Fold these 4 entries.
Entry 1:
Amino acid sequence: MKSVHKHVRIALTQRGIVLIDALVAIVIFSVGILGMVALQGSAIEMTGSSNYRINAALLTDQVIAQMWATTPSQLATLYQGKQGSGGTSYVTWFTNADCSTKPSVTGCLPGIKTNPPTITVTPETFSDSSNTQYLVTVTLYWQAPSDNSVHQYVSTTAIGP
């Protein structure tokens, strides 16, 4: 009789242990799901950020390619500019790079209107040659709609013989 009474007492003291195990498992599972959601959000943000950097590189390469097709002595007249004003080719390129005037597609950057790009053209003549080479620096600035900071992309290229 004593052993039966002892088993009943042990059973009563262990009652609810399965419920505690289940609650702990649910908490651990919930923390894991929240971590996955945070990771997904971070991945989406990084993808958007890399898209802006790619667009900045494409826009810079586009204007440099146009410069290569231009007579080198005309580079400063046509392409040099800052704060949204400058040569005619600079203004055309700057207008096309703005996402506020057209749907957001590749080849434009948000916030470029408030942070205009800069293009500088510096002639360099070498002492051992009569050829002039032009050092072109294109600096793009953009600011994503959900971002507080302004980002920049700089490309420097030598154009000439």
Entry 2:
Amino acid sequence: MVKNNIPKQAILIALASAVYYVESLVPFPIPLPGARWGFSNFAVLYSIVEDKNLKNALYIAIFKSILGSLLSGKFLSPTFFMGFSGSVIATLIMYLALKTKKFGIIGISESGAIFNNITQVTFGWLFIIKSAGIYWYLPQMILIGTFSAIANAIVVKSALRSVKP
């Protein structure tokens, strides 16, 4: 188990930040300002599954959110705070899902995606929009998040196969 592998973390943060930026350029199918696909979360999932270290995964989640939002011009915007809170909670949930030893990579990724969406919508309701009407987007977000979570899990499985004999 890797306790503190700064070069690997730096690479994962850089990759996730770049993906975050590219995601900001790709239209999202739901008319919700600031919504993204969630593919940059592959780096957090990879760190959780490979390193099994919550601290490393949180570093990646935090810094990819900050750098990605700086690159896309959304730093400290309402959507930044929604995404940041969702990313941190998703990281904690994925780590807990890993520790239960009842989920595979797809289940870990799905649990993170679902809680990411719930957290973002709840944050938006409580601090930004202040209307429970935002919850109408949640089923659509979870549906799209399901596909993103599966894609992230496939990327992580492929990466793990390529780095392990």
Entry 3:
Amino acid sequence: MTSTQRADTDTDLDVGDLTRAIENFNRYYIRLPAVQKLSFTTLSVLDTLASSGPKRLTELARTEQISQPGLTQLVTRLERDGLVERRPDPADGRAALIRLTESGRRIGQARHEDRGRHLIPLIAQLTPAERQAIAAALPALTRLAQLGTEARR
């Protein structure tokens, strides 16, 4: 699909424009300064576990798009730091589930709150119409993310 193609003939949504807007925002958002200096991969794993619950290493490696040996090393470090723990999988005693600890959850919450603090002064600079447009788009963006997550399963 080229940048001038539409997602649907009944809408004026330009997928190229949407992609550029998301990428530009993400470029800024993921690089916001943080109280704790953790890698993007570490933060992504913690966020995935916080939002999706415990996962097997193989499932987490697929979700995070990193090799299983690389993820195993990362999980070992996170476990050593008290951010995740391995628990037996009740469905298969031979396998383990990676679970977020309370310390890991607090890091994710602190990161979320810190990012919000950085966004507040920027949002204050938007016009009321721009703020309303973002608020109106939130349900659709949330649904778009859900559809993307479901499609990866």
Entry 4:
Amino acid sequence: MARSERPGGVVSLIGLLLAIGGGVLLVAGVATYVVVSTTLSDQHITVSEDADNFAGEHVDQPWEAYAEADVIAEHASEMADGKTYAELPRDDPRRESVMTASFLQASLFTSVVAFGVAALAAGIGILFTLTGISLRRVARAPAP
């Protein structure tokens, strides 16, 4: 019998492809997480002392980035009496500081999302790999 005609041959091939794809996703997810963490760390950001969580911590993980983004939003809101950048008049001297705070907050939230996507890719990679291995085992099992 040709390989493709052998019982379980197609299932085994699909399992192999899933396992390989899962491995690629796992490696890509872990590598992305490390790159985001390293890049964030290189910015030498420290969570503000008045943050609710992780005060004084070096920002290189998503929870620290989120905590610092949150405290930046609080500071900007206090500075602008609760108004956003768009709500402040163009001639308001606080507008530039609030704008900078918005950009910093958005950048930190973007890193939080990047961490999440990296973790998701790694998690899906693990699931694909396990599914692929399982399919290959099923394909090799003797027929009842």
